[in-house]
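Quick question, first post here. What does this chain look like in 3D?
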Amino acid sequence: MSNPSEVLALAQNRAAEKNLPYAGALTPKEAFEVLQADPKALLVDVRTKAELELVGRVPGAINVEWAFYPGMVANADFAKQLAAELDRHQCDQDSVLIFLCRTGGRSHNAAAVAASLGFSQAYNTLEGFEGEANADKQRTLINGWKRAGLPWTN
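> Answer (accepted):
Ran it through. Tokens below.
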């Protein structure tokens, strides 16, 4: 396992290179390393409840839906619900928060919201849980949390 400080520094460099509005961007393996090394770090899965039930979930992650199924209707109360969950988990403004979704898009937006709420250590998980789609727009586990062989359950 790498030094978590080094992993976060790498993620922060990615954020600076891409001018991201939050602390950094982690690969799934890096996110898992940080979560293993820092018991106070929190994984926030922003997928829908339907995705969690049908595709799988990461043990220990909390869920705050970015949008709702069916129709992927935006969760207008996301920021308020996120703040309440983080408060419930006794997170402070410097807590390491790692966001996860299907491919990294919704979690990018969620990390930006967390940063706008004053959380200085908000990170996005690149590739997401299922990873990128192939040329036919199918999820064939090209990359992502599941492809990396990281823990998940049905």
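Residues 4-18 form the longest helix (15 residues).
The domain at 4-125 is CATH 3.40.250.10 (Oxidized Rhodanese; domain 1).
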